[in-house]
Design a protein that fits this description.
This protein is an alpha+beta fold. The chain has 4 helices and 9 strands; from the N terminus they run βααβββββαβαββ.
């Protein structure tokens, strides 16, 4: 049984392993970035766990604007209680756990937080080959991003709160770790 919970300090080693197997060294978040995210945005950093092992995670700060900017990969601030756009800076699933729908489960948990906290929606950037995956989850492609993160071409994708129908509030991530 897969369970969802907020990130904990003790998760760092497993998170870094999944991050580095999922992203190139140019695009992967650093240990320092993960420590900052754990400290500042644990309320929007969800991990999927089975038998004590992290299978995947999703994280990102709440931002005022609808598109992610490269400075977010270097410096973030704590989330406001309500409003703004929920960004996704990282969504990764361990290679051993792929193909089980874990990424979709994590996205749905983040959507529940968006509804609960009255955010405008979710914003993310992805490479071209991932656009169909996100579109199947209801995201709309807003075209090429200005992001130069990792030296790649990124696309802005957004899913507004009003398009997050049918969520069963309370079924997602618990309030406590």
């Amino acid at each position: 049984m897969i369970s969802l919970r907020r990130v904990q300090d003790a998760d760092l080693e497993q998170l870094l392993f999944i991050e580095n197997e999922s992203f190139t060294s140019e695009e992967a978040a650093t240990e320092e970035a993960f420590m900052e995210r754990i400290k500042l945005i644990a309320d929007t950093f969800i991990v999927a766990v089975k038998d004590g092992k992290i299978l995947g995670y999703i994280n990102g700060p709440v931002i005022a604007q609808p598109y992610i900017t490269d400075d977010l990969f270097k410096k973030i601030t704590a989330n406001p209680a309500h409003g703004g756009y929920q960004s996704i800076l990282g969504l990764a699933v361990s290679t051993q756990a792929r193909g089980q729908g874990i990424a979709r489960i994590l996205i749905e948990a983040m959507e529940e937080l968006v509804v609960q906290n009255e955010r405008e929606g979710i914003t993310l950037t992805c490479t071209e080959e991932l656009i169909p995956f996100y579109e199947k989850s209801g995201f709309v492609n807003h075209g090429l991003s200005e992001s130069q993160h990792g030296g790649l071409s990124w696309y802005n994708l957004i899913k507004l709160r009003e398009n997050m129908n049918g969520l069963s509030l309370g079924a997602g991530c618990p309030d406590q770790p």
